[in-house]
Predict the structure of protein-tyrosine-phosphatase.
Amino acid sequence: MIKVLFVCHGNICRSTMAEFVMKELVRQRGIADLFYIASAATSREEIGNDTHWGTKEKLREQGIPFTKRKAVQITKADYEAYDYIVGFDRENDYEIRRICGPDDDGKVYSLLSFAGLDREVADPWYTGNFDKTYEDVDMGCRALLAYILQNK
């Protein structure tokens, strides 16, 4: 089983969007049983809260199913449990390493790096632009899935 954890600041916008997009991509390919996909936060600010309404709205618009959930924080144990720990910006990357320790096994990635881009996925909590975030998340998840399938 390939285990992917998406991690953003609060676990209500970008990471949940990526979680549900990736789940739909593997479902469409008929390979969902090969994956365990989840999301988490680096902060404790939104712990217990459901997905942001703007993310839900964008997922509905795109026909991507989602479920009710509660934000959780990444733990040191998650580093051992997951094969891919995927952040969205430099702050996420820093905080993942602060919580989990050094990335000795090379499991921590930036989502857009899979698409060959060296830039961050903007946080729609601050920008209000869920459309742009979705475009980046969809592109990144598709590239991540292609990378995983080529390297498994």
